[in-house]
Each structure stands twice: as C-alpha cells, then as structure tokens.
Amino acid sequence: MTTSTNDQAGAASVMPDEATRARVKRWRYAKDGASRWLVGFGGVSVIGALALMFLYLFSEVMPMLAPPEMEPLTEYAAPGEAGERTLFIAVERYQEVGFRVTDAGALYFFRPDSGEVLQRITLHIPDGVEIVSHAFGEPRTRLNILGLSDGTALLFRDAYSLIYPEGVRMVEPSVEFPLGEEPIRVDDDGAPLSVIGAQQGARGFNIAGYTADGRLLLTNVDARRNFLTGEVTLTRRGGVMERPDYAPVALLLSADLRDLFVGDDEGRLHHYNTLNVTAPERTQTVRVVSEGTGIGALSWLLGTVSVIVGGEDGSVSQWFMVRDEDNIRHLTLIREFQRMPAAVTAITPEYARKGFATADADGNIALHHSTSHRSLLQRQVSDQPVRFAINAPRNNGFLTVDETEIVRYFSLRNPHPEASIQALWSRVWYEGRQQPDFVWQSSSATDEFEPKFSLVPLTLGTIKAAFYAMLFAMPLAILGAIYSAYFMTPRMRGITKPAIEIMEALPTVILGFLAGLWFAPFVERSLPAVFSVLLLMPVMIMGLSLAWFMLPKHWRGRVVPAGWEAAALIPFILLFGWICVEMNPVLQIAFFEGDMRQWLTDRGVTYDQRNAMIVGVAMGFAVIPTIYSIAEEAIFNVPKHLTQGSLALGATTWQTVTRVVLLTASPGIFSAIMIGFGRAVGETMIVLMATGNSPVVNFNMFEGMRTLSANIAVEMPEAEAGGTHYRILFLAGLVLFVMTFALNTVAEMVRQRLRKKYASL
Q: Which of 108, 224, 236, 350 is most solvent-facing, going by the fewest CB within 10 Å?
C-alpha cells in the first residue's frame, strides 16, 4: 500500500496544474491561428502576385488597342498670295516648318501653327509657260514634279537642316533641284503635259506624262557629276510610249523604275513594264472601281508596291502585283476599306508606315492602315471638298486644305495602327506574297518594310515544342516512376530516384548548348541510327524480357536478384545503341541512297539541322525529372493495404498495378504530366539554342519553330520602348501567361475530379 501511494503521489506531481494546461492550450491555439493566417496570407499573396503580373502585362498591351485621337489646333487662309491655288502641302518632322506649292510657281515655307510665311521662293518657269499638272513621288523622297504647258517638267524637293544658334534648335528650310533649276524636256513636240508623274530610283529619274494631244510619254533622266570639274551632265532616254485609247487621270511610277500604273477616267488601271524605258510594254488592264464609276484619286503606299485606289463612289481599295504559278505577275485586289461618304478627292501615304489618309468631296477625312486592314478614324473637317490631307512624318500632326484654300492643322495620336486582332491572329496578305499567310517577321534592312506580327506561328511553335518534349518525356518518366516505385528494390530505388532528380538541377542553357552544337549535327549524320534506336530499342527490350521470363525461376534468382532486372538491362541497351550507330553507314547506303537527309529532301520533306525532334529530346531531359519525381511519389504513397489486399484476393502484380495503383495515384500522375507540360510551354533557353528559331506554321518534326518565350528573349532587347513591336512582345507574354494559367486551372479541376472519384479506394 505504501508503494502504491508513493506512485500516485509521483504521478500527481508530474501532471501539470490547471493554469499550466490552460497556458499550453492558449499557446497551441495561438500557433494554430498564426499558421492558418500565414498559410492563408501566403496563398492570397500568390494569387495577388499573379493578378499584379496580369495587370502589368495588360497595362502594357492596352495602349496598343486604343483608338487614334485627332484634335483641331488652328485654321487659317493658305499662306501666300491671294488667288493662288495649292498644288501640294506638307510639314517637316518637327512640325516647325510647313511647305506649300502653288499654281503660280511659288514655294512657301510657313509656320504650321499660325500660317506665318517664313520664306517665299519663285521657280524658274519661262514667261508665257503655265503649270498644267502636278504630282509627287514616294513620301521619303519628298519629290515634287510640275508639268508645264510647253512639254517640259520641273523637279524639286523641300529639304531641312538643323542649326543651333545659342543652343536652341532651329529648322532651316531650303529647296533642292536634283536635275537643275531649269525645266527638263519631256515632250519633243512641246505639247502641254496635262497629267504628270515622276519617281527617283537607282537608274535616275523616270518621268511619265500624258500630253494634251493624247500621247503617253516615258522619259528617263540620269544626272552624272564629273568628279574633277563638278559639272553635271544629264542623259535623257525614252519618248512616246503609245497613243492610248483612254484618257489618263493619274500616273504612278515605282521606285525600282520597273512599273508604271495609269488610271483612266473610266475606272480602269493599266500596268506597263518599264524595265526597258525605250520600249515599255502594257501587260494588264483591270477595272478597279465599279462599273460606271471613275477614279477619284490614286496613290502609292510607302515602298511603291501597293496602289491605293479611291473611287468616285467613295470606295477605297488596295492592289498590288502577285505572281501566279507560272511566275507571271498580275494586278490583284488585296483588300477593301471602309467607304468614304462621298467621292474620294485625295489619298496621301504615311512617311514611315503602311498607312494612308483619304479625303472626300463632302469635307471628310479618314485614316487607314493596309496591313491591319483597318479604317481607324473618319471625321468631317470642312463643309467643302478636301483637296489635301497630309500626315506629319512622325504621324503626330495632320494638315488639310479644302476647296476654299483654308488650311486646318490638327494634333494626331495614332501610335499603333498596324496592330489589330485580324493582323495578329488571322491570315494577312502581305506585299510581295502570293496569298494570305501567318507570318512573324518584325525587322528588315529596308525602311519601307511591312512589319509582320502574326502571333499564330509563335503560339503554334510553343505548342509544337511542348508536344514533342512530352512525346519523348512522358512515357519514359511515367513508366520509370511505375517501375521504381513498385517493382524496384529499395536499395536500387535509393540510387535511381536521387540520380534522376539531380538531372533537374542541370542548367537548361547547358542542355540547349549540347543539343544545338553536338546532338543536332550527330542526328543529322546518323538519322538511320537514331530511328533504329527509337523504333527497335523497345522491341529489343521486350524480346529480352520475354527470354528472361522463359528461364526457370530458380535460374533467374541466381543470375539477377529480384528487383535488379533494370540494372542488368543497361549493358544490353548500351551495346544495342553502339551497334545501331556502327550500322549507320550500311543503313544509309542500303535504304537511303547514301544520305537519308538528302533522301528526305528529294521527297519534299524539309529537314533542318536544329528541329523539333532535337528540341523534343533536349527539352524532354529537362522535363523528365519533374514528371518522374511527382508521379513516383504518387505511386509509392498508394496505401499498402490496397495493394496487399489485391494480391491477397489473387490478382497478379501487374493487375494490381493497372487496376488499383494507377487508379489511386492517377490524380498525382495527372498533376505530374500537367506540371511537366507547363514547364515545357515556358521553356526558353533550350528552344532558343536547339532550333533555328524559324516561325513556321506546321508540326513537321524535322523543321524548327519559334516559341513565345524564345521570341521575347530574342527580340525584347532590340524593341523600341513603347513602340508597337515592344507592346506586341508584351502581348506575347500575356498570351503565354494566360495559356499556362488556363492549363494549370484545367489540370487542377481534372485532378480534383479524379481525386474525388477514386477517394473511396
């Protein structure tokens, strides 16, 4: 009894008192509450971070989708003498000096914001000779030409230089005469040039004219300066082309001096090949406006490839030459734009983009962009017909002149006209191509280049790279996870699992480097060997497995302990791979005429050295550890009572794996697959280094691709901050973000459904 009493006293002394228990309980509740708060805060923070990323990307993309803005600044009577009629008006890039040409042969430099005349220059036009026609060349040349009543023409351009008196920038205007200040003879008969056109090219200046007596002329004038004396010699070639059976209203010459387009008063456009200036050839005549309607205005776009036609019915359309299957060029209607309310009276192209402005007889103006196929803005600016509607060179200002010689000056904000849903996601018919297509080509060596910003090749390239990576990685990773988690001995699993997971620490730049510089050339040289390994290695392994299980069971245990069969396969795999490589020359000669790559090319299959197959293998090695690790944990953690119960009921090991283990682990396996796919979608360095980065639209495993992430990495350093290219790259990032977010969301929904479905197991 004494011992029992002592034990009870000792137990009572160990038990905490009520105050201590209450204090411990409060501390436990505090820790639990803090943990819940921290976990919740972490989850909300992750969601908030994702939301902030989305908002930031969206904020960079939104300005690209904003409509243009035009605000009136001032209006005034056209600068110069009263009664003079405007033939041409423009403004220089800083919008500090404007330029006006009149039918009196006077050139005026003026202030665009007030109309104040800064300088007046009188052209050298002979007495008794009148200006009867006017035209201007490609916008960047700033070339003007006047057709005179004596069969001559005068070419000139406005020019500007910057000076900095007392450190303040000033624009100093001047006029240049590329062929001299005296008019150039175009018609030897001296008939008035009632319609005129000119263009400067590598072979001098081409001048086309239509005389009052019905002759169509073409003249090439080349100016050569003597190196020693500085004397300029003019060489003139050409003459009368033909006496056409139509009345021209406009003449357009291309900058390569190859094409002449003549618009007539019946709504037709005639094309002439002018490579041989002494013997031009008419190749095609096309009706470009509806029957019974004439041409109101005709103009080139930047680069003199596309012709913009404005009809008297208000129609606006784009045309250019397209080659057919026989390599013959045909004038083709490319696209039509929003109609003007009245007859088109003027069309003027932008200086540095494929946009243009139109004006009509009711005083309306409109801004269009050809590539994005958009009519961006339409506004009435006068109650009189508008004769000129001119963009400033930087597209931040706008000038109009109406029939009453009133000049109106506007501020303009139109920074991203080339970006539209159609241009980014639909087929676009780009200049020089035979048909509409998906193209990404953001830069070029020429100023008149038409940027091609289709996101379809990049998005498809991202999916293509991820598809081939998963095609390679998914079977190896999941089957490897099943084997190591369920069939492998614990000791071998303890070696294999960490070794595979260490692969995930390999820098992807190293994998891309090895894939691009070693693996891709090896595959190109050894295509039959590679396909032999891919196709015959599984057959070899299955054959060895069958032979192994045909051996008596006691023999198998003596040769290789149970669970170590995979280790025994390694020498056979290496030996078989070596045999395939050594047999490569024999296979090349026996089946592929000595060169499998050339054999594929001869049969119309394009083969690039750095292609989707290379990316699939290289990216597969980067993705395998992720899929394997998650899937293996899911399979290994299947409750033992399920597998033991299945075996106890008479199921085989394989039946237990396929009907119990895989079903129970399916949520984890699916998560592993989707996380691996997400990793492949966002991969950058491997794709950047192991492909040719060619934005093609196909799933050919022998061709490369360009992905969204690789494109951002390559082009973002060169993109102008705030420009269209810059914002489209942000849009590419937003598309990638949305793709991965949607993919992970769907994956989680499927995982939860699988988890709920098989939870009863």
A: 224
Helix (H, G, I), strand (E, B), or coil: what is residue 522? helix
| Separation of alpha carbons 366 and 663, rounded Å | 64
DSSP state of 213: T
For 357, the 3-state DSSP assignment is strand
Q: What is the pLDDT of residues 451-502, one digit of tens each?
A: 999 999 999 999 999 999 999 999 999 999 998 888 888 888 888 888 888 8
pLDDT-derived band at 313 (thresholds 50, 70, 90) equals very high
pLDDT for residue 752: 81
Q: What is the mean pLDDT of the chain?
A: 90
Distance CA(268)–CA(37), nearest Å, equals 76
Identify residue 234 by its one-letter amino acid code. L
Domain hosting 200: range is 123-287
User: Are both 283 and 294 inside the same structural domain?
Assistant: no
Q: Based on the fold, state whether residues 213 and 352 are members of the same structural domain.
A: no
- One domain for residues 265 and 401: no
- Please name which of 206, 214, 301, 297 lies closest in space to residue 260, comparing C-alpha atoms: 206
Q: Which of 406, 437, 468 is the last residue of a domain?
A: 437
- Residue 334 tokens read as 């490319």
Give the span between the Cα atoms of 386 and 397, in whole angstroms. Answer: 17
Tell me what pLDDT residue 1 has: 45
If we measure between CA atoms, which residue out of 101, 157, 102, 150 comes closest to residue 130? 150
Predicted local distance difference test score (pLDDT) of residue 718: 87
Report the C-alpha gap between 276 and 478 in whole angstroms: 69
CA distance 709 to 462: 8
Q: Are residues 474 and 609 in the same domain?
A: yes
Q: Which residues contact 272 (CB under 8 A, 6 or more apart)?
A: 218, 241, 259, 260, 261, 262, 280, 281, 282, 283
